[in-house]
């Protein structure tokens, strides 16, 4: 560009074209303003009854059995370290749950680890009570997860899902984590259409 005009292949562009080039150059310098994550006050309520001392299916280092309470402690450490890495101003509190508690202005998330249903164990009643409490306590979107598998990796995946800020979460029904790895089969394929093979690798 010389003398206020743009030269292209020996021809001079009109002033309107010059303005368009200048506008495009200015648009490429756009940048997002800096912003920081909101701080959260997070309260952990852990039910420490006899069921929390049941062993998980997988053992720990050197074959030592892992109880549900041990797995919960490790999951909470993972959660706290991850949240502090995102924003060091987050604050945490821990409560051992033994009596009913009501709390105002906080989001309640639930991870319910249980045994398979049996004559003396009805996890569905407990789950229904937790869902009812979740609906009455949380103002924002509270998540509820359950697992009767006894697998620590399921617990770790669920605790990582709770890293999302309650104000910024989608509805739990819209979550599809983890994504299904099953092969997608087209439903409306006519005889004349070509179907592209999907790799399962």
Automatic annotation (TrEMBL):
Keywords: Cytoplasm, DNA damage, DNA repair, Nucleus. GO terms for cellular component: BRISC complex. GO terms for biological process: DNA repair; positive regulation of DNA repair. Its main location: nucleus. It is found in: Nucleus. The keyword Chaperone does not apply. The keyword DNA repair applies. This is BRISC and BRCA1-A complex member 1. It comes from Ananas comosus (Pineapple).
